[in-house]
Amino acid sequence: MMTDRLKDLSPGDVAEVVGYEGADPAYRSKLLAMGLTKGIEVKLLKIAPLGDPVEVMVRGYNLSLRKAEADILKIRRKS
């Protein structure tokens, strides 16, 4: 299964969260609390000029993630 990171997407791209990499349990819990659970669809809305933060739409709301948070998410692009 080919996985990517949010930084590999362009604004408007849609992807599915397939896992987490490099996060301690407390940090992973924070991502889960923000709604970033496995199988959920995210849409990349915009990337700040220096790449931090990125804004995604998840579960019908806009969420800004720091680069470090975004890099933990493993995603699979949707066509």
Automatic annotation (TrEMBL):
GO terms for molecular function: transition metal ion binding. SUPFAM superfamilies: C-terminal domain of transcriptional repressors. Residues 4-77 form the Ferrous iron transporter FeoA-like domain. Keywords: Iron. It comes from the Bacteria. This is Ferrous iron transport protein A. It comes from Hydrogenispora ethanolica.
